[in-house]
Each structure stands twice: as structure tokens, then as C-alpha cells.
Specification:
Arc Repressor Mutant, subunit A; 67% helix
């Protein structure tokens, strides 16, 4: 029942976004007036706010249901053990890399034993703990750096950069304080993307005085997240703000990215 509601909500979301895109094209082609388009857009934003509230509640119930199912099947214990095992293995590998060439025989023996431990999955795919560590390290890098970094999410093409911005918003906001200053977000984004600041496109933007290329890339992802009802951009006086209005959707986007890119069987990395 809940999953069918989620599927119907996703289908409605696709239809609404397609409809507003069509209205935008019709406006640009002179088929409708700017006032008519503005009316379409007002209706779209009203629906988006309602949908965001609905999706937040729906995903809370979906999460509760999934947790109950895991408890019935005792999967929560297995997931906890997997998580602990992975954390231990990553810590050992961190130590090994930090002291490369200086490892003791005990260090070498510990890693040799850990890396060959089976990584448990429902389909018994034969993965080893070393595979899970490699996947976890890859997951921690910027999503935009992964080759072919895109997935489909609710009928839309999602890039790794969209996921990186979602991660950043999840990091600097929480349920108690869902709003951040846009200037803070921009500054953190520039710190995380030094390669964008030094790219050829950034140099062209600077020479033509078109503003920051890194900020342009951030703005593009914010527009995407806003169009999907995950965030809202507004202002308080002269201060531009970004508010997370559907945290569950941001988390869902990140989970879907992880499943598509890094999941080993049903293991949750």
C-alpha cells in the first residue's frame, strides 16, 4: 500500500514537472502569455509544497515499515554487524596506509585476515571485506568525479554533482535547523571544488565577468533539487537562504546513488 502510494507520487511528480516544462516552452514560443505561464508556475509551486509535505510523512512511514520488517527478519542485527565490521576494516586500512612501509607483522597479519573475510549478502555473491572497503572509500569521494556519474531518480537524470550538493545540504542542516545562509553554502562548495575554480570554464567566466563558475554549477544543482521539492530558496531581508523542506528525499537520493554505484548485493555500505 505505502509503496504503491510512493510510486503514484513519483509518477505525479514526473507529470507535474513535464507540464511546467511544457508551459515554459509554450511561453518561449509565444503560445501562451507570461501571465498565463506565471499562473501555471504558481499552481506548480503550490502543488510542490503540498507534495513535499506528503512525501515527508510517507517516507517516515516507509522507513518505519522497513525497520519493522528488518526486526521481524532479524536483519537489523545483521546490518549492525556489517556496519561494525566495515568500520573496523576501514580503520585498520587507514592505519595501514598511514604507516605504509612501517607495518608490524601483527598489522600485516590482521589486515590479511580481515580482507579475506566474506562480506555477507542475501545472494551470497562471494564478495570479500576488501571489496566492501574499496566501495566505501569510493563512496566517500565526490560523486561528480565518478565516471558516468548519473542515475535516474523519479524519472529525472541525476548527476553526481547533484548528489554532492545534496550531501552538503544534509551536512550543514538538520531537522532542528533546516535553513542555511546561501553564502555559507557557496563558501563550503568552493572549498570542496577547488578544481572548478581552476578549470578552463572558470577562467573564461572570470575573463568575461560572468561571475563564479563554481557558483554557477552550485546554482544549477540547487535548481534541480528545488524543482523536485527537496529544498526552497528564499530570503530574509538581504540574506539569501536555502531551506531543506524534504530531508527524506535528499536521503533517498543519496541512498539510490549508493545502491546504483556501490552496493555489494544487499549490503548497505
Amino acid at each position: 500500500m505505502l509503496k504503491s502510494l510512493d510510486a503514484r507520487a513519483a509518477e505525479r511528480s514526473v507529470r507535474e514537472r513535464d507540464a511546467i516544462k511544457l508551459a515554459e516552452h509554450q511561453r518561449d514560443a509565444g503560445l501562451i502569455t507570461h501571465a498565463e505561464y506565471a499562473d501555471h508556475y504558481r499552481q506548480f509551486t503550490t502543488w510542490r509544497k503540498r507534495a513535499s509535505r506528503f512525501n515527508t510523512v510517507l517516507h517516515q512511514y516507509l522507513d518505519l515499515t522497513a525497520d519493522r520488517v528488518r526486526r521481524v527478519h532479524h536483519d537489523s542485527v545483521a546490518e549492525s554487524l556489517r556496519s561494525t565490521l566495515l568500520a573496523l576494516a576501514v580503520a585498520v586500512d587507514d592505519h595501514r596506509q598511514a604507516h605504509a612501509g612501517e607495518e608490524s607483522l601483527a598489522d600485516t597479519a590482521l589486515w590479511a585476515r580481515l580482507r579475506l573475510l566474506p562480506w555477507p549478502t542475501a545472494d551470497d555473491a562471494g564478495h570479500r571485506l576488501v571489496d566492501a572497503v574499496a566501495a566505501e572509500r569510493s563512496r566517500r569521494t565526490a560523486a561528480r568525479h565518478h565516471e558516468n556519474s548519473s542515475i535516474q531518480y523519479q524519472g529525472s537524470h541525476v548527476t553526481g554533482e547533484n548528489v554532492d550538493v545534496a550531501d552538503l545540504l544534509l551536512e550543514i542542516t538538520d531537522n532542528a535547523e533546516p535553513t542555511c545562509d546561501r553564502s555559507q553554502l557557496v563558501e563550503l562548495w568552493k572549498q570542496r571544488t577547488p578544481d572548478l575554480l581552476e578549470s578552463d570554464a572558470a577562467k573564461v567566466a572570470a575573463s568575461t565577468k560572468k561571475g563564479s563558475y563554481a557558483t554557477y554549477r552550485l546554482r544549477r544543482s540547487l535548481t534541480f533539487l528545488e524543482s523536485h521539492g527537496m529544498i526552497e530558496r528564499n530570503a530574509e531581508g538581504d540574506t539569501a537562504k536555502v531551506t531543506v523542506i524534504n530531508r527524506n528525499a535528499l536521503l533517498s537520493l543519496r541512498r539510490q546513488w549508493d545502491v546504483a554505484r556501490f552496493a555489494l548485493g544487499d549490503a548497505e555500505l
